[in-house]
């Protein structure tokens, strides 16, 4: 992270279990699933809603590892620096707290991860199957982005 952004995010150190780089200039911060909502709530409190936005949420099936990876891409302003807040969920029970009450813009990403991979975002009343996935796959109980879905 740039010096300014790094100092602004130092409060997150207590949540971060691993740091890395996704690609040059893009910091990766891995947090436990039970801390995701608190991380975003504190980020808004400490740096302000006007100084950051959630760009996207990407869910990836890590079948061989038995987990689903969630990456929250956050753009920090005014630096326009993107950081990735990552967590891992057990593949057989992918449940994490929703952040839509903290960051309403997370709705589309949460709905997509739910419909395509089966991630349950607790507290999101808008989750449903069939928004992105065709009805026949929903009726078969398939999540098309799961590597063993057969789709």
Task: Name its key features.
151 residues; alpha/beta; Beta Polymerase, domain 2; 5-stranded mixed beta sheet; two-stranded parallel sheet; 23% helix
- Give the class from helix and strand content and strand pairing: alpha/beta
Number of strands: 7
At the first level of CATH, what is the class? Answer: Alpha Beta
Indicate the radius of gyration in whole angstroms: 16 Å
Give unreliable regions as ranges.
none
Give average pLDDT, whole number: 93
Number of helices: 4
Q: Which term fits the overall shape?
A: globular
Named at the architecture level, the CATH assignment is 2-Layer Sandwich
Number of domains: 1
Instruction: Give the termini separation.
Output: 39 Å
Q: How much helicity do the residues have?
A: 10-25%
Oligomeric category: single chain
Beta-strand portion reads 25-35%
Main-sheet strand order equals: 1-2-5-4-3
For the report, how would you describe the main beta sheet?
A: 5 strands, mixed
SSE pattern, N- to C-terminal: HEEHEEEEHEH
In the CATH scheme, what's the topology name? Beta Polymerase, domain 2
């Amino acid at each position: 992270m740039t010096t300014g952004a790094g100092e602004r995010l130092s409060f997150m150190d207590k949540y971060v279990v691993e740091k890395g780089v996704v690609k040059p200039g893009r910091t990766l911060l891995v947090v436990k699933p039970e801390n995701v909502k608190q991380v975003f709530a504190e980020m808004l409190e400490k740096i302000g809603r006007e100084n950051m936005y959630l760009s996207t949420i990407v869910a990836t099936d890590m079948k061989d590892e038995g987990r689903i990876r969630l990456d929250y891409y956050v753009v920090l302003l005014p630096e326009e620096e993107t950081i990735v807040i990552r967590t891992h969920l057990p593949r057989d029970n992918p449940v994490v707290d929703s952040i839509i009450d903290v960051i309403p813009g997370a709705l589309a990403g949460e709905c997509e991860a739910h419909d395509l991979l089966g991630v349950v975002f607790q507290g999101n009343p808008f989750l449903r199957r069939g928004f992105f996935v065709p009805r026949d796959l929903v009726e078969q109980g398939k999540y098309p982005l799961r590597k063993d879905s057969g789709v």
